[in-house]
Design goal:
ten-stranded mixed sheet; binds nicotinamide-adenine-dinucleotide; binds magnesium ion; 19% strand; Isopropylmalate Dehydrogenase; alpha/beta; two-stranded antiparallel ribbon; binds 3-isopropylmalic acid
Length: 351
């Protein structure tokens, strides 16, 4: 297969982890006879520095013309520490998601056999966890009207959802549940928020089309608790943008590290693959960040092209590295940590 992949490395550890995903993907291409053409493009603070805006038109054109996008991470402390900055790296990420129509963010949470005792949660709680969040990605409070009034003394962020936005993510949730254990949890705050009541009402109306799916409706605050208490009781969870952002970082503790969590952001016409973590500024340039989340995002990319064996080959290499203890410092004991690029080399060699 010939694949054109837009490569948006971004900021902080973004370029370091992306390099490893490229190495591993190139090893896959060699083994399975594919041809990958990488199309690097600017995004985030790097794009602000170069051209004054975090998601330039040229980058968008490259994304649209590609078969998929592989994304590292964006964000820089000089913006995080300056609340009044008008142009911010994160705006680029949001604009990109919106312009590419990536309304569904698929964020799986699973455990790795050799890491069961690495999690701060007890083995018997997390063993067997295999759940997927479908996080709505182009609506809600992230995209509603926001601003200040009263001479800056009052701030607002509006949370808005349309029924159609809820229907399309819920449809994905029901369809995914049908291919798994037929359990769907709708995460909301319908006891308080009107947008959540629209979510609940919309999902309830869709239940009749999927009679085999057992649907539960749970409040987000309770899910935040049960997620770490009984994670293996969940299968597919659908949720609005902000709740999904928060719960998936929480869920990374189940697997053992933020540096392990991949994701796919999909829409009708485009697909983008990105780790759930950020630019981890403290680790920039130190060759210590875990590249596995980005490497596993590349595995999701191959699977999205229908290349299951390729995706599995990546997962097997990651499992082998974890079993062998060939890991970065977030997962290592004491002195036994390997560098980001060494882990990438090891994975590529073991494809
Ligand atoms: N999708 C994205 O690009 C994205 C996501 C989240 C945050 N951000 C941005 O990243 C910047 C830093 O934000 P933050 O510190 O809250 O979140 P972060 O995800 O960058 O880091 C939080 C913590 O997670 C751990 N971590 C993250 N990635 C890791 C990796 N690859 N290997 C090992 N450990 C890892 C580290 O302990 C780190 O301190 C901010 O500017 C933020 O806006 C971007
Ligand atoms: C950086 C930020 C805009 C982004 C989000 O909130 O969606 C990040 O936290 C993520 O999870 O991808
Ligand atoms: Mg996040």
């Amino acid at each position: 297969m010939k694949l054109n992949i837009a490569l948006l490395a971004g900021d902080g550890i973004g370029p370091e982890v992306i390099d490893q995903a490229v190495k591993v993907s190139d090893a896959i291409a060699k083994k399975f006879n594919h041809e990958i053409t990488w199309k690097p493009a600017l995004t985030g603070a790097a794009a602000i520095d170069a051209v004054g805006e975090p998601y330039p038109d040229e980058t968008h054109d490259i994304c649209v013309a590609s078969d998929a996008v592989l994304f590292g991470a964006i964000g820089h402390p000089r913006f995080d520490n300056n609340p009044s900055a008008k142009v911010r790296p994160e705006q680029g990420l949001l604009k990109m998601r919106k312009k590419l129509g990536l309304f569904a963010n698929v964020r799986p949470t699973f455990t790795f056999p050799s890491l069961l005792d690495k999690s701060p949660l007890k083995r018997e709680r997390i063993e067997g966890t295999d759940l997927v969040f479908l996080r709505e990605l182009t609506g809600g409070i992230y995209f509603g009207e926001k601003g200040r009034r009263d001479e800056g003394e009052t701030a607002f962020d509006n949370c808005v959802y349309t029924r159609v936005e809820v229907q399309r993510i819920a449809k994905k949730g029901f369809e995914l549940a049908m291919t798994r254990s037929k359990k769907l949890c709708c995460v909301d705050k319908a006891n308080v928020l009107e947008t959540s009541r629209l979510w609940r009402e919309t999902v309830q109306a869709m239940e009749k089309d999927y009679p085999e799916v057992e649907v539960s409706y749970e409040f987000v605050d309770a899910v935040a608790m049960r997620l770490v208490q009984w994670p293996n009781s969940y299968d597919v969870l659908i949720t609005e943008n902000l709740f999904g952002d928060i719960l998936t970082d929480e869920a990374s503790v189940i697997s053992g590290s933020m540096g392990l969590m991949p994701s796919a952001s999909v829409g009708t016409d485009n697909a983008l693959f990105e780790p759930i973590h950020g630019s981890y500024p403290q680790a920039t340039g130190l060759n210590i960040a875990n590249p596995m989340a980005t490497v596993l995002s590349a595995a999701m990319m191959f699977e999205n092209f229908g290349l299951k064996e390729e995706g599995n080959a990546i997962r097997n290499a990651v499992n082998k590295a974890l079993d062998a203890g060939f890991v970065t410092e977030d997962l290592a004991n004491g002195d036994n940590a390997y560098g980001t690029s060494e882990v990438g080399d090891w994975l590529a060699k073991n494809i």
